[in-house]
Automatic annotation (TrEMBL):
Keywords: Endoplasmic reticulum, Hydrolase, Membrane, Metal-binding, Metalloprotease, Protease, Transmembrane, Transmembrane helix, Zinc. Residues 204-409 form the Peptidase M48 domain. It is found in: Endoplasmic reticulum membrane. GO terms for molecular function: metal ion binding; metalloendopeptidase activity. The chain crosses the membrane at residues 6-22, 67-88, 100-125, 146-165, 171-191, 288-308, 320-343. Its cofactor is Zn(2+). The keyword Phosphoprotein does not apply. This is Ste24 endopeptidase. Binds 1 zinc ion per subunit. The active site is at residues 275, 356. It comes from the Bacteria. It is an enzyme of class 3 (hydrolase). The keyword Cell membrane does not apply.
């Protein structure tokens, strides 16, 4: 067997089996006894419902990942990439347009495979447990907007990458890196004003106690804001959340209406203090820096494989092209990507503890964040007893009980 084909199939199948194994461990770790910390927050019905929700998610993920992995492997072995490439070349355009047609064809096929699972997740599982508020109209309008944005932004990035790799010689990877980073930063800068409002309505937070306390906290901690907004998260789900977007003078705080309705003023401020902590402690800058470095390394490694005949032979390709090489390298990179994601999650969990500590220290009320975490766990039907291996492999945030323990141990002098 072609060595590249073996590595890719082994990696795809291994990743799928690893996911199933970790999720089954997570299922077995579910405890019928409610943790004492949540005795005043969860009632018996809600706790049982949270475990049923976790079980439903595990079963769904096991099936969906198995089916998608099997289809991907069959697509590779049966020459699917070659068929799409021949179809794209049949239009008679140059390398860049042919490459974009190739990616568009793969995107459509991928969406056809994932659509039934996405619909089932949204309109069956999320509906069953009382989360879904999305209508079919909203769902498909979101997909249409996603297609348009993907075509514009993704097309620009992919078109530029194809152009550089076809015309810039040995330093093409460097130009691709610079170009991709600039586009990505530009998108993040305009996202709060031009992109996110395409999916959610951003309404300036009304004057009152909540707005005053948020502005006071931000000012006291040297955090400049361009606005505080409420977004209509309840349009799609009952789950609550809060975040801030953008950078520089475009930083915005966004509060889901579901969060405002479920938490007290002090609890909301504590949640936002946590999010602001990520910025003040340099977490966002560090993660962005690591992402930029990782992107550069990927482009450098990619440049060594784009013309590799053995790699193209693994996919039964009749033509060697940059556009196909990008996809094949991404598949070959799968095991490295898994390892990097584990280390990224470890770093992310550390950052979450640090942001919690920042919120506790700056608000002087760690108990407010504790209560917020408890309420969010109930409203989101969170798994309170995840298996350590699953946490290590998949969690970007520490388990809620670990966060509460750390907050309770925090000393306010």
């Amino acid at each position: 067997m072609n060595i590249y084909l073996f590595i890719i199939i082994f990696s795809l199948a291994g990743a799928c089996l690893l996911g199933i194994f970790s999720r089954q461990l997570n299922r077995k770790a579910l405890s019928p006894e409610l943790p004492a910390e949540f005795s005043a927050t969860f009632d018996a019905d809600d706790y049982r419902k949270s475990q049923d929700y976790t079980k439903a998610g595990i079963g769904f993920e096991n099936i969906s990942s198995s089916v998608s992995t099997l289809i991907t492997i069959l697509f590779i072995v049966l020459g699917g990439f070659n068929a799409v490439d021949l179809w794209a070349n049949g239009f008679g355009y140059g390398e860049i347009l042919t490459g974009l047609i190739f990616y568009a064809g793969l995107a459509v096929l991928s969406d056809i495979v994932s659509l039934p699972f996405s619909l089932y997740s949204t309109f069956v599982i999320e509906e069953k447990f009382g989360f879904n508020k999305t209508t079919l109209k909203t769902y498909f309008m979101d997909k249409l907007k996603g297609y348009l944005l993907g075509g514009i932004i993704g097309g620009a990035i992919l078109g530029g990458v194809l152009l550089f790799f076809n015309a810039a010689g040995s330093l093409a990877w460097l130009w691709c890196w610079i170009f991709t980073v600039l586009i990505t930063l530009g998108v993040q800068y305009i996202a709060p004003t031009w992109i996110l409002p395409l999916f959610n309505k951003f309404t300036p937070l009304e004057d009152g106690e909540l707005k005053e306390k948020i502005e006071l906290f931000a000012a006291d901690n040297g955090f400049e804001l361009s606005g505080i907004f409420m977004i209509d998260g309840s349009k799609r789900s009952t789950k609550a959340n809060a975040f801030f977007t953008g950078f520089g003078k475009k930083k915005r705080i966004a509060l889901f209406d579901t969060l405002i309705n479920n938490l007290s003023t002090d609890e909301i401020v504590a949640v936002l203090a946590h999010e602001i902590g990520h910025s003040k402690l340099g977490h966002i800058r560090k993660m962005m820096t690591m992402s930029i470095i990782n992107t550069g390394v990927i482009f450098l490694l990619m440049s060594f494989f784009l013309g590799n005949k053995e790699l193209f032979a693994a996919f039964g390709m009749q033509n060697i092209s940059v556009h196909a090489g990008l996809i094949f390298f991404a598949l070959l990179y799968t095991p490295v990507s898994i390892v990097l994601s584990i280390f990224s999650n470890i770093r992310s969990r550390k950052h979450e503890f640090e942001a919690d500590a920042f919120a506790a220290e700056t608000t002087r009320t760690p108990e407010a964040l504790v209560e917020a975490l408890k309420k969010l766990s109930v409203s989101n039907l969170a798994n309170l007893t995840p298996h350590p291996f699953y946490v290590w492999l998949e969690y970007s945030h520490p388990p809620v009980l670990k966060r509460i323990e750390a907050l309770r141990a925090f000393n306010i002098n």
